[in-house]
Write a structure and sequence with these properties.
Mean pLDDT: 85
Order of helices and strands: HHHHHHHHHHHHHHH
Helix content: over 70%
Radius of gyration: 22 Å
Number of strands: 0
Low-confidence stretches: 451-460
Number of domains: 1
Distance between the termini: 49 Å
Structural class: mainly alpha
Largest sheet: none
Number of helices: 15
């Protein structure tokens, strides 16, 4: 096994790619923490309501991740092969698919907010707060679908700084308007949770405007004209869709499963919902590692496969697993330390604070196994083995994780911490499955050139 000294150059290259995106997500998560703190000043019901609304919001977001992931696989490999026409067509596919995903969620959020919130809780004050928030916040998908697609395309080509800068501008704007609109400063009305939703819309509009200006001025290979948006080869649509369906289904089913888990835990009261929201927001500061390693996997596995360097891509993948677990051990220690002071910043009940602190401590000990599973997922996805990603992620959640948590929730009198531990323990089984799929190496493929059916004609 290669030791750390022999891999120093590779690790530095990985960090050079991963750290800018990690910083982008860290800034986003930090401002989300500030936003969460602001909403938290409104009490347990407000933070629980927004948390429940965000569980629905998360499903569509991960749906975009699914189609964006499929787009990124092909875009990175076509970019590695210097195939400009297919890069453009792949980007167009990503834009259209993102809006196909978000449209039904926007409509449901606008017309059925109470029913959506009622799925998670029966507490009237939580439903009222969450409904107020979701009816406004759901509109952020209109600019966000495009900005996420452009950001994914840039990162697939190794450009991480521009998404970082646009994210910084967006989240600073979000924080400022949260402060103004939630609490009614500088002559603006005090809007509470509605103010948080309006601030999010303003920030997302700014973000997409920045992306549009930058792509207009810089010569990105994926740049396309609006009039050409639907000019995509039928064969390319078929090929990407074959990969996109398992990824998108996986992301939607996985995020739906996470929402059901939230529902299970919420049976123990709104204080648990508030505590979970707090711990989740704080934990996101450390889960930025996942995003960084996902981008690194795209560059060091997908692009290398696209350049037909299969042995190098294989070697890179296993080194990424080892390196990501080492980094995760360090991040887990930091998360554990944060559990002693971060929950104290919130104006919520002592029960909510205790719940948040305990959840953070459990996650800190499990962080390395979370990262190992995630890195296996990124490798499988980078090579286009989307059936395996579906199996190890959402199929595992619905076949193993959800039944375990559901059974102990409704058939025992266990407290929420015991329920949570039971669910988290399944991640060890998941790693056995995930690493086994990686070792099969069905992901070691050059999608840009290895199949005859991928020689695309350009007739639309």
């Amino acid at each position: 096994m290669l030791n750390l000294k022999e891999n120093k150059h590779f690790y530095l290259q990985v960090l050079a790619i991963a750290v800018p995106f990690m910083l982008q997500q860290l800034i986003t998560s930090s401002v989300n923490l500030v936003d969460n703190l602001m909403v938290g000043q409104l009490g347990d019901a407000a933070i629980a309501g927004v948390a429940a609304a965000n569980r629905f919001y998360m499903i569509a977001t991960f749906g975009i991740f699914g189609v964006g992931g499929a787009m990124s696989i092909f875009l990175a490999q076509y970019f590695g092969a210097n195939d400009e026409e297919h890069v453009k067509q792949t980007f167009r596919y990503g834009v259209i698919s993102a809006y196909v995903i978000v449209t039904p969620f926007v409509l449901m959020g606008l017309f059925f907010p109470e029913q959506i919130l009622g799925f998670f809780t029966k507490e009237a004050d939580v439903i009222a707060m969450g409904s107020t928030y979701i009816k406004i916040a759901i509109l952020t998908y209109i600019p966000m679908a495009l900005s996420m697609t452009i950001s994914n395309a840039m990162r697939s080509m190794g450009e991480t700084k521009i998404p970082l800068y646009s994210s910084i501008a967006s989240i600073i704007t979000n924080a400022i308007f949260n402060y103004i609109l939630i609490f009614g400063h500088f002559g603006f009305p005090k809007l509470g949770v509605a103010g948080a939703a309006y601030a999010t819309i303003i920030a997302r509009i700014l973000e997409v405007v920045i992306f549009l200006i930058v792509t207009q001025r810089l010569p990105f290979m994926f740049k396309t004209h609006i009039k050409d948006l639907f000019k995509i080869s039928r064969k390319l649509i078929k090929i990407i869709t074959i990969k996109a369906i398992p990824l998108t289904v996986n992301e939607i089913f996985w995020s739906s499963g996470m929402s059901i888990l939230f529902m299970f835990y919420s049976t123990r009261g709104k204080e648990v919902m508030a505590g979970m929201s707090i711990s989740g927001t704080v934990a996101d500061l450390f889960f930025t590692l996942f995003g960084g390693m996902a981008v690194a996997s795209t560059v060091f596995v997908s692009q290398v496969l696209g350049a037909n360097k299969l042995d190098e891509a294989r070697s890179n993948a296993y080194r990424l697993i080892r390196f990501s677990v080492m980094l995760a051990a360090f991040f887990g220690i930091l998360m554990f330390i944060s559990s002693f002071f971060a929950p104290l910043l919130y104006n919520v009940s002592e029960v909510s604070r205790h719940t948040a602190a305990t959840f953070l401590r459990i996650q800190s000990f499990m962080f390395w196994i979370y990262m190992a599973n995630a890195q296996c997922f990124f490798i499988l996805r980078a090579g286009g083995d989307t059936k395996s990603t579906l199996l190890m992620d959402s199929v595992f959640m619905w076949a193993v994780n959800l039944p375990v948590v559901g059974l102990v929730t409704y058939l025992t009198g266990w407290n929420v911490f015991a329920i949570y531990l039971a669910g988290q323990a399944t991640d060890f089984v998941k790693f056995v499955v995930a690493y086994g799929l990686v070792r099969k190496e069905q992901w070691v493929k050059n999608l840009a050139h290895s199949h005859e059916e991928q020689i695309i004609d350009f007739d639309v």
